[in-house]
């Protein structure tokens, strides 16, 4: 049968730390994904409690491998695992190498705790959590991949991701193309603040760098201000229309013999 994650797990206790705390380490044999539970009483009740928490998150494995300690051989734990369909295998007595996966991790965990040098339980608990975060993201020497990639099919996000996800800004050098803006303020006699219409960013520029446009933007869309129905005006030619006097053509004749007289009258408008 093809081995996969969550099929066989190894468990072991280590300690004491700070003279009273013990750690239950549970490792997945395929991915090397490991969980650590701290307690002051390494008994079968706590073992069942820790495994129940683990199974509720990751599912029930097919096989559990442990040593022959009393915290693993208790009958209530045996019947509980059998009821879940998990086969419990014990290693050979007085032969820790039979549970090599858990033993190797226990040595690594002890080395990490010694480097942390915890003083309080808070230091111990926080140090183990930080260690597990880095351990699950580091490539394993046997599998060649990190436990997170094999167990979760992804890498766990850490604060180191902030190094590669910073906002990148590209600056264009010697870009002399003109852009349209609006002068929003003056800084002295020769400096102005210009608001770029494209990027909505403000820049300080010298007046020699700015080409001012006297026309307002509203001039580009001039509208006809004349009324749609203008008032009719009388022509000047009609206002001073000459009137012919046919009854007395010679009374005011000035044409020298033509007999025609032109009278001009101004009509009021």
Tell me about this structure.
29% of the residues lie in helices and 20% in strands. With 269 residues, it is of the alpha+beta class. The chain has a five-stranded mixed sheet, with helices on both faces. A hairpin with a 3-residue loop joins β1 (8-17) and β2 (21-28). 15% of the residues are buried. The model is unreliable at 217-223 and 259-269 (pLDDT under 50).
- CATH fold label of the largest domain: Nucleotidyltransferase, domain 5
Instruction: Characterize the largest beta sheet: strand count, sense, and whether it forms a barrel.
Output: 5 strands, mixed
Number of helices: 8
Strand content: 15-25%
Read across the widest sheet, the strand sequence of neighbours is: 3-2-1-4-5
Structural class: alpha+beta
Inertia-based shape? elongated
What is this structure's SSE topology?
Elements: E1 8-17, E2 21-28, E3 34-39, H1 44-58, E4 63-66, H2 70-73, H3 75-84, E5 87-90, H4 100-116, H5 121-137, H6 147-152, H7 161-164, E6 181-186, E7 191-196, E8 202-206, H8 236-239, E9 242-244, E10 262-264
Parallel strand pairs: 1-4, 4-5
Antiparallel strand pairs: 1-2, 2-3, 6-7, 7-8, 9-10
Protein name: Integrase catalytic domain-containing protein
Region (Disordered): 213-236
GO molecular function: nucleic acid binding
